Amino acid sequence: MTTRRTVLAAFAAAPIASFLGRPALAAQPPVFSDGGLAIRGFDPVAYFTQSAPVMGSAAFQSDYMGATWRFASAASKALF
């Protein structure tokens, strides 16, 4: 026989049971980097200043948030 107490206990336990059934999620890195190179080496500033993807250069790079960012020019690096 089902009582109110049993029904209330089931409703109270449902959120806890669904949480415990989920697999643990690994922490995502704050920046997408392919082998440590942010956004696959493209200049992040060029997307805004030139409205197009432009490949960055190793001559203009900076480390930020655990990734290496490359820029097409010193001006792009300064804007970053």
Briefly say what this structure is:
The chain is α+β, with helices and mostly antiparallel strands.
Using brief descriptors, characterize the structure shown:
single chain; 80 residues; alpha+beta; two-stranded antiparallel sheet; 34% helix; 21% strand
Question: Overview of this structure, please?
Answer:
The chain is built from three helices and four strands. With 80 residues, it is of the alpha+beta class. The strands form two sheets. The protein has a two-stranded antiparallel sheet. A two-stranded antiparallel ribbon has the order 3-4. The protein is rod-shaped and about 75 Å long. The protein starts with a helix and ends with a helix.
Detail the topology: elements first, then pairings.
Elements: H1 4-20, E1 33-34, E2 37-38, H2 46-49, E3 57-64, E4 67-71, H3 74-79
Antiparallel strand pairs: 1-2, 3-4
